[in-house]
Write a structure and sequence with these properties.
globular; single chain; about 210 residues
Length: about 210
Amino acid sequence: CSTVALPGAVGVGGHQWQQQPTFTSSHLTPRGQAKTITLPDGTALSMDADTQAQVTLYRDRREVRITQGQILFAVAPDSARPFHVLAGPARVTVGGTRFSVRYRATGMEAGSVQVAVQEGHVRVAGAQGAATPADLVAGQALSVSPAGVLGPVSPRAPRRLGLWPKRLVPFLYTPLAPALAELERYGPTGLVVHDPAVAALRIGGTYQ
């Protein structure tokens, strides 16, 4: 990963001064690995395998952009600087809470964004304000479609969040082919499916 701490600018107008970042960093976890990083404000990011993210801290806000993958956030409260997560068509805004965001361009749930809250509350918006933002509290989750349309808010047991740090992956009526692709993110399975009918079989459960 790379990190840059930026000094304050001199002689810059008020608005422009607010728009200049004070800290930036880029992070990557390869297949089969995971890590936790702590930002200067005390926020912890637990990054799943095969995840890429960019962090930018400003004087009036904090932003993390997920290019791909999944992150479990433990956001340090700061009422003067809201925390935003940008992932595909979704924007998640919080003050201080614990939640997860998943976005992948390919594979299982390709193009959509999944948000689930373990503690506190978050606000989720779709692309270009296409719909009224949704507020989620602990134990709730929703999915944002590739077009930026918010799905219904559904219950999610807090204990099911962050299973991947424990090397566990849950599936719910997931076709076998994308389920195997998901497991391959953590290591080679040695399994190849040649029969399309078998690849379409749906599985459920939690797997190591």
